[in-house]
Write a structure and sequence with these properties.
Layout: E1 2-5, E2 8-11, E3 16-19, E4 22-24, H1 28-39, H2 47-54, H3 62-75, E5 86-89, E6 93-96, E7 101-103, H4 105-109, E8 130-133, E9 137-138, H5 146-161, E10 167-168, H6 171-174, H7 184-191, E11 195-204, E12 207-216, E13 221-231, H8 235-250, H9 252-257, H10 270-283, H11 288-304, H12 309-324, H13 330-347, H14 352-361, H15 364-377, H16 382-394, H17 398-411, H18 418-431, H19 435-448, H20 453-465, H21 469-482, H22 488-494, H23 500-513
Parallel strand pairs: 8-10, 8-11, 9-11
Antiparallel strand pairs: 1-2, 1-7, 2-3, 3-4, 5-6, 11-12, 12-13
Helix pairs in contact: 1-3, 5-8, 5-10, 10-11, 11-12, 12-13, 12-14, 13-14, 14-15, 14-16, 15-16, 16-17, 16-18, 17-18, 18-19, 18-20, 19-20, 20-21, 20-23
C-alpha cells in the first residue's frame, strides 16, 4: 500500500518518499515519523504517541522531537508557519491534515492501461532500518583463519541486533554469500534490506587490520568506511568501535544523544574466544558430527574460561538440539544441558545465548520466560525466535507458535536452520488441524534438508490424519531412517506437549501411519 498526497508518494514497502519522479532523501527515523503521521491522519498524535512509536518509549528531549517534525515538514515542502500538511495542535500534538489517497503497490507502479509487473522476488522492507552484515573477507592468505574473520562479522551482527531500532538479518542468511562475488543489489533484494555492511580482516602475527564499509543499496552510496590497525589484544574494542560507527552513520541524532556501545562481556582469554568461533563454524552446519566437534571445542573454551557465558550457553543448546534430533538420549543430554545453561546465566545474565540455552532445558511457561528474555536482549535472535515458537506449540498456543516460527524465517530467510523453523511452523499448523498447510510446510523443510527429523515427524502424522496413507507410510519409512529409535513411547515421553488432547492428537497421527 502506498500513500499519495499532493505530488508526493510515500511507499512503506520501499521506505521511499518521492515527489513526482524524484526521490526525497529522508533519514530512517524521519521517514518513520512521517509514515506514522500519515497512517494516523484521522487523529491528533501526541508526544507520547510519537515516543512509543518512533523511539520505542525512550525519553528524548523536546528539541530532538521538534527537529524530527521539522525535518518531516521540510521533506514535504511544508514549514512551521504554513503547516499545510503537518499541523501543530496547541497543547495536544500534531496531525497530518493533507488529503491522502491509498493505493496498492501494484497499481502505483503500473502506468494507466498497463498490466502490473510480475510480483517481485525481493522481500519487502520491514518497518525498521534493515541491515545485513556480510562475512568479512579473510585477507590473511590462510584458509584456517576463516573462523577469525567470520567471528568478527558475527560479533558485529550480535552487537547490532541488540539495538532495537534495527532489523538485523541473522548470521546464517548473510553468510550464504561467503566466498561469492555478488552485487550488493542482489543481496539487498534476497534478504530484504536497505543497508549492507562488508569488510575484510587481515591477521598478521600479533596485529590485525579490519576494514569495514556501510552501503546504502537503495542509492548505491557508501555511507561510511573505515580502517582499523590494532594489536590483536584490542580486537573487542575494535568491534565495538565499528558497531558505534555504523550506528552513527544511520542514526546520527540518536548516537549523539546516547552511547550505543554493545553491552557484551568479552571472554578473559582470546584463546577461549578463538575456540568459540571454531565451535560456531561447526554448530551452524547442523549435522550430528559437527555438533560433536562443536561441543569438544566448547569444552576446551570453558576449561580456559569457566565464566564464558556464551560458550556455556551454546554448549547447553547443542546438547538439547542433539537430543531433540534423536542423536543422543534425552536422559543423558538434559542434565548436562541444564547445568551448562545455569552456569551461563550465572556468568552473564545479559547474554541471549544463556537464556536461549535455559529455555531449551526447561518446560512450558518457564521455558517461554527464558526465550522471551533472550528475545528482549536480542530481538533479532532467529534461533531463539524459532524455539520460542516450538515452546508455544508445546503449550497449546499454536497460532502464536506459527507467528513466531514465521518471524524466525523472516529474520533469517536463508539459513541452515530454516528447515527447523519450517518444521516448527508445520507442527503448529498440525495442532491447529490445518493438515494441508502442515504437510506443505513439512515438505518445504524436507526439500531444504532431507535428513531433518522434525520434518519427517510432522509429515508422517499430518499425512496420516489427512487420510494420505501412502504419503504417511513413505514419510514414516524416512523417519525410521533418520531416527531409528523413534516410537510411540519415545514421542510420548520426550516431546513435552502440555495438553493431553494435543499429545493424543499427535500420537494418533503416528498410530494411523503405522508407528508402534
Amino acid at each position: 500500500m502506498t500513500f499519495h498526497f499532493e505530488d508526493f508518494v510515500l511507499d512503506p514497502a520501499r521506505r521511499e518518499l518521492r515527489r513526482a519522479e524524484t526521490l526525497v532523501a529522508l533519514e530512517p527515523q524521519v521517514f518513520d515519523l512521517l509514515l506514522y503521521l500519515v497512517r494516523n491522519r484521522e487523529r491528533v498524535v501526541t508526544r507520547d504517541n510519537l515516543l512509543d512509536a518512533i523511539w520505542n518509549g525512550r525519553v528524548v528531549s523536546e528539541s530532538t522531537l521538534t527537529s524530527r517534525i521539522n525535518a518531516a515538514r521540510r521533506a514535504v515542502n511544508d514549514n512551521g508557519e504554513d503547516q499545510r500538511l503537518i499541523r501543530t495542535v496547541a497543547r495536544k500534538g500534531v496531525r497530518f491534515v493533507g488529503e491522502v489517497t491509498e493505493r496498492s503497490a501494484a497499481a502505483s507502479s503500473s502506468a494507466p492501461g498497463k498490466p502490473p509487473d510480475a510480483t517481485p522476488t525481493e522481500l519487502p522492507l520491514p518497518d525498521r532500518p534493515a541491515i545485513a552484515v556480510l562475512p568479512f573477507t579473510n585477507m590473511s592468505g590462510e584458509a584456517e583463519q576463516d573462523y577469525f574473520s567470520d567471528g568478527i562479522s558475527e560479533d558485529i551482527i550480535t552487537a547490532l541486533s541488540k539495538l532495537r531500532w534495527f532489523f538485523v538479518i541473522a548470521r546464517n542468511s548473510s553468510f550464504i554469500y561467503k566466498g561469492r562475488t555478488v552485487h550488493l543489489r542482489q543481496v539487498a533484494e534476497e534478504l530484504g534490506v536497505r543497508y549492507v555492511v562488508e569488510g575484510s580482516v587481515r591477521k598478521d602475527g600479533d596485529r590485525v587490520r579490519i576494514t569495514a564499509q556501510l552501503n546504502d543499496v537503495a542509492t548505491g552510496s557508501h555511507l561510511w568506511a573505515e580502517r582499523y590497525d590494532r594489536e590483536l589484544a584490542d580486537v573487542f574494542a575494535v568491534q565495538d568501535e565499528i558497531t558505534e560507527r555504523i550506528v552513527a552513520a544511520i542514526e546520527p541524532q540518536l548516537y549523539a544523544a546516547e552511547n550505543f556501545r554493545a553491552e557484551r562481556k568479552p571472554p578473559d582469554s582470546l584463546d577461549a574466544w578463538d575456540l568459540l568461533m571454531r565451535a560456531l563454524s561447526h554448530y551452524w552446519r547442523v549435522t550430528r558430527q559437527d555438533h560433536v566437534a562443536a561441543r569438544a571445542l566448547l569444552e576446551k573454551a570453558i576449561a580456559l574460561d569457566p565464566n564464558y557465558g556464551k560458550a556455556l550457553g551454546l554448549l547447553g543448546t547443542s546438547y538439547m538440539f542433539t537430543a531433540h534430533m534423536g542423536w543422543m538420549e534425552m536422559a543423558a543430554a538434559l542434565p548436562v544441558a541444564e547445568r551448562a545453561a545455569r552456569a551461563a546465566i550465572r556468568a552473564d545474565d545479559q547474554d541471549a545465548w544463556a537464556h536461549n540455552a535455559l529455555g531449551h532445558a526447561r518446560r512450558f511457561e518457564d521455558s517461554l520466560a527464558e526465550f522471551e528474555t533472550a528475545l528482549r536482549l536480542n530481538p533479532n535472535f532467529a534461533l531463539a525466535q524459532g524455539y520460542y515458537g516450538l515452546t508455544l506449540s508445546y503449550c497449546g498456543r499454536w497460532r502464536d507458535a506459527d507467528d513466531a516460527a514465521r518471524r524466525a524465517i523472516r529474520l533469517s530467510p536463508r539459513d541452515p536452520y530454516a528447515p527447523v523453523y519450517f518444521g516448527i511452523a508445520a507442527f503448529a499448523r498440525f495442532l491447529g488441524r490445518d493438515y494441508a498447510e502442515a504437510i506443505r510446510l513439512a515438505q518445504e523443510a524436507l526439500r531444504q534438508r532431507s535428513d531433518f527429523v522434525g520434518g519427517h515427524r510432522v509429515l508422517t502424522a499430518a499425512a496420516a490424519m489427512a487420510g494420505q496413507a501412502e504419503t504417511a507410510r513413505a514419510a514414516l519409512k524416512e523417519l525410521h531412517r533418520a531416527q531409528p529409535n523413534v516410537s510411540l513411547a519415545w514421542i510420548a515421553e520426550f516431546m513435552p506437549i502440555k495438553l493431553a488432547a494435543d499429545r493424543e492428537h499427535y500420537l494418533e497421527g503416528f498410530r494411523r501411519a503405522g508407528l508402534t
